[in-house]
Amino acid sequence: MASQGLTYEGCNFFRQRLVLSTLSGKWVKIKNIRSKDDSPGLQDFEASFIRLMDKITNGTRIEINQTGTVLYYQPGLLFGGQVEHECNPQRSIGYYLEALLMLAPFMKKPLRAVLRGVTNDQKDPSVDTLKVTSIPLMKSFGIDGEGLELKIMKRGMPPGGGGEVLFTCPVRRTIRPVQLTDPGKIKRIRGTAYSVRVSPQIANRIVDSARSILNKFIPDIYIYTDHMKGGNAGKSPGFGLALVAESTNGMFLSAELASNPQGQGSPMLPEDLGCNCAKLLLEEVYRGGCVDSTNQSLALLYMTLGQQDVSKLLLGPLSPYTREFLRHIRDFFQIMFKIEVQKQEDESRRGGDKVLMTCMGAGYANISKTLK
Amino acid sequence: MEAKEQKRHQRKQSGPKAERKKSRKQRAPGAEPDEDERRRNPRAFAVQSAVRMAKTFHRAQDLKTKKHHIPLVDRTPLEPPPVVVVVVGPPRVGKSTIIRCLIKNFTRQKLGDICGPVTIVSGKKRRLTFIECGNDINTMIDLAKVADLVLMLIDASFGFEMETFEFLNILQVHGFPRIMGVLTHLDSFKNNKTLRKTKKRLKHRFWTEVYQGAKLFYLSGMVHGEYQAQEVKNLGRFISVMKFRPLVWQTSHPYVVADRMEDLTDPETLRVDPKCDRTVSLYGYLRGTYLKNKGQVHIPGVGDFAVADVSFLPDPCPLPEEQKKRALNQKERLLYAPMAGVGGVVYDKDAVYIDLVSSHVDQPQAEMRPTAELVQSLIGTHATLDAKLAASKVSLFSGAAAMTPGEQQAPLENRVWDPVTQRERRKAVFSDDEEEGDARRGQDEEEKAPRVKRQRLERVEAKPPVEMPAFADSEDDLEMSGDDGEQSEEDEREGAEGGTADSGHCSEEEVDDDDEDEAEDDNEEKQDGKEEEDDEEDDDYDDDEDSDMETEVTAPVNISALRWKEGLAQKASEAFLRQQQAAPNLRKLVYGGVTDDEDADEIGGLFRVSRPEKSRSRRVDAMDCSRFVPDSPHDWDQEEVLNSIRDCFVTGKWEESKDAATLLKEDEELYGDFEDLETGEVHHGKPAKEEDSEEEEVMVKEDAEEEQKKKRLEKKRRLKERFDSEYDDGDATYFDDLKEEMQKQAELNRAEFENIDDEARVQYEGFRPGMYIRMEIPGLPCEFVNNFDPHYPIILGGLGASEGNVGYLQMRLKKHRWHQRILKTRDPLILSLGWRRFQSIPLYHIEDHNGRHRLLKYTPQHMHCGATIWGPITPQGTGFLAVQSVSGTQAGFRIAATGVILDLDKSVTIVKKLKLIGYPYKIFKNTAFIKGMFNTMLEVAKFEGASVRTVSGIRGQIKKALRTPSGAYRATFEDRILMSDIVLLRSWCPVSVPQLYNPVTSLLQPVGQKDSWSGMRTLGQLKRDLGLRNKPNQDSLYKPVVRTKRHFNPLHIPKQLQKALPFKSKPKQDQKKGKTPRHLQRPAVIREPHERKVAALLTALSTVHNYKTKKAKAEQHAKHKEFLKQKEREEMEKLKRQKEARKKMYRIMGQKEKKRERSSLKGSSKDD
Fold first, then answer.
1. Could you report the predicted ipTM of this complex, rounded to two decimals?
2. Hey, are the CB atoms on A367 and B875 less than 8 Å from each other?
3. SS (H, E, C) B1114-1154
4. B906 vs chain A: nearest CA distance in angstroms?
């Protein structure tokens, strides 16, 4: 029996392809991975990602050629259970966690993953952001219960890493359809200013500067300062800020910024960082929607994998990553979204144009979960 | 005394009493008793016992909740597909007859051979598809999975047959569709009483199988070879009002019961290799759920295939448009059965037969119908937009003018006697190749004559001669003389050319796509006009294609190849105009340009366009990151930028409808009028002045009116909601809430894509159930086409995500209680699971208390056990059934086992017990060296610390491996073991499941042998077939037991020990006595005769004496017993007396006591 499969080129959107392949059961072949680069083939962090996929699945077949430029991935069944993974510090844990968030509800056993590595960096969404945005998003799709938790045990900044994150997620058979069309109005802003292996005063400086900007809009702002010490502080110094705005309808928009890694780039002023991060949050608010830009693909995936009902979701402008994700969803699940642009009237002061995404779920059911 | 005749009770027929009684009787039994009854007899309704009442209440609630089903979202389509009515029963029970009668009842048309599914319009809102189920277990399994309603025909004169029960079991496993029993052959009963009894008996048996009260229909007899019209009508009514419950498998998978099949293979490849894989298009109504294009389907009996293309077609059998009248008129009673030859046209695999009604049917109708149907069907075929079809045999009519009844004489007829339908079928033979036709006619007749209900092995070789289509060129004359097969190939090749012309056009579009791809790298914000251009060209192409299609529909095929070139300039200008107007389309941006441009780069298959790869390569190898960092962030220091998001915060301005002030005002309007009871003040809400003023403006502004109306409606709705929430919430249960939620979702599902046209809608939703679709499937084995038999259903079952993969399945299995033999592990079994039928090798196992899955050699008799197979991934909870063979009919009940899928996995956890044995070769006290259990030191190292045991039960532990001999180890035991002991190590060894997945390809079997598929044979069958016998293990045979005499060595006690022993235990003392020495032996006494006499007398005397004493003793004993009894009696007597005395005394004492008490009480009261 020849199962279906897809072939792609290049290393971009690597995680999407593997995740969707695992969920849909179709094999995937990725060719010409950095074939014209100075260092061709898969990089360490991608190899680490593949290893993580191997750990959470059972029966996965992975073939990589000599140079690492061709990857063949035949997915197995999602297994879950206790997983410990040493994430490569080239990318932060968010890189790995984003894929886990997509896969975790469809495991055979509830996932309990301990990921070690860099918790916050400048490239990927940090663990703090995912904790405050993705977890409530999952709850709105019916993935809730006491098992759903994302906990930062230790913080680790690049380049050294040394952070530790615990992610647990319960298992679901089906995902509920959602109608998230009204984002509501932002009622409060929360955030975490963290600092490791630097002066604890830095966090306070960040908070002050961020508040100075956000206070123009809303008084209900509280930014926690999180200074970790000793063993919990990882191997490298650094600081940063993660902000989240909660709306009256329970939607979360987030923004974050981290300091430059030690020895790379010029040192940053905490005040600048706070200001910039607050502006990023305003930018995010301007984009608007029920889901912030980092979680767009997660929400769209859950909509796709829902029961055969109509789901609706209001988003801000689609990020390039999400656009490619939509194409991949069409490749793997043959599901197309109805995309309607909601123009904002000129006099309304509610940010930019929004996009209403509508789709009919694929009727996906968790095939790994054991029936008792 | 004679019994007095009492006056009999006279029931009142009229008057108030009779009225009252009548009214009481008329009241429904479940209705609530009248209020006045409660009032009149309150005690009867009073609470007698709180506990009892609680119990009754509890029970009532239990019963109520038991009735609840888990609410499901109602996903039934607005225009549902025809209901699949499967008619089953053993052979010669009247299946075809009943289908024919029902069709006649609904559509007033007669059908000859029931061949393939027959779809009819049965009412204003219902269509039916009848399928006859043969007696083959493959067919029964396939049809049980798609049936909505099963008409189960039972021969009453014979009773139930095994097939009926087998089919019921199949249904039960694959979700229970509605079942209706139909008893036939009731006219064979001469005796009315036996008829009644038989009916009752069969009914009750049927009820135990289906459910109590299941509908069983009686067809009392035949009139002119048909069932009685009234009975058929009743049956039809029952069918057309029946309701159906959704079945899990059916509602979660799309499926098509194909009613038409066409071979689209390129004739050239067919000519080169007649056995090449075929491309086939299959037609049918889509059922179940939404079907996505380019998915994977399973065709039971053939295998898994990827669908190349799906397209929807106009409904060939649509429901009537307007719904004014009660009944359908003649035109609306449609019938669609391409395989059954309706309207005289029979689509065979490579020919079209025209069936003219024979002479005994009244002529006018015969003239009217076939031609009309013929033309209709031909129009239908054109409407499929299928170029290949146009080139097939039907096209002979398209070139010529439409055939009139007068012209029907033109083709020569070839009469074929069909013994089944008892009429002549005339095959159309055209004059062009008369010779050939003549030559073949004799052969034809020979072969056609035995054409019975089921087509037999040999297939009619001759294909009907065909007129060449209009585009045929001079070469065709040559071709004509050759084989007919080539002709058709030629035709199709021509069609294919048309296709290539199209694809040439396509490539142009793909080049466009390529451009678009590049353009896409730009960010959305920077999206420029170029993007739009491409999109529009895309659009243009679509239109273009459409117009092509249209031309194909209307005009003959030959010109279509060059059509696209017409009016290019005009189209270009149109496109330009349109793109000027169009706005940027996000959908096109996302989905428009993702086609793989690999092929588009090639020009004419030779040259490769070298394009600057810069942008693409950068994109494909870019960093994989989900963060969306704005390229041109706003300047958040400016006030106006800040203002642009002001209203996103709670501190900003709210919308009109949600503003707190508005809400307050609304409340006032709703609840405005109230009277303050304390002060007596009356408050009035604001009078709705707007309405008055509005009435004046009505003429001027109709929009405002509309708006106002909407507003009012909205207000009303909100008011009602509030009212509902206030007053109904007390009663609303969780169940009600859930139901409401589902209802809302269902409404949304229906409404969301309602207004989009089908072309676009299909892309979003997939193909809706109820659509008539055409699926193109490449790579089908040639046997599918060559051995096609329309009597066997072709089902295209859609597969969900990852259901196309294979893995290990763990299931719960139970041997069917009617199957005679238990099942053996590793014997191949044919399973019906999901859509599939396949052979696999199961391993049976049972779970031990500690969660270990232990292998079983056989299935338990009356118990569930686990089974693990290597098979297709199927969702958990899916039922399956197993049979041992699908070929022919065997004695006994064929369904071997049933069960359910529990778990899917890619690894197995079954273990079997493994006992390793070893022998001691050196023993020191409790330590022993054991050899023969392992082969190497490494093996031993793995088992260090494992517990071992000797056969005699001495426990021990493996300590350490020894260097020599290899595999030997040192072990310690709780006691010293013997050299003759055997040491055992009990362990568990994982078992691998054989990876056999062998789909049952019954549809690929030759015609007439479709029920003879046999897969892998079991070991037992193989041995039986090859005449092999198992050589028993020589050691296991019984032999006469030969026991050698055991020789014990003398006990040797060391000197030292002897010395230490106590005196009595010293071996000297213990020595055997041996013979008494001679001098110690006493001489024997020999008595004299006299002495002997004396001795005898003494013995006699003593015997007498003994007897006497014995007797006396017995007497004494009896006496003593008597005495004891007497004594006991006296004792009892005494006790009784004493008891009475005591009683008396106590009574007196009690009285005294009482008296005293009373007196004391009195005294105390006096004290008071």
1. 0.93
2. yes
3. HHHHHHHHHHHHHHHHHHHHHHHHHHHHHHHHHHHHHHHHH
4. 5
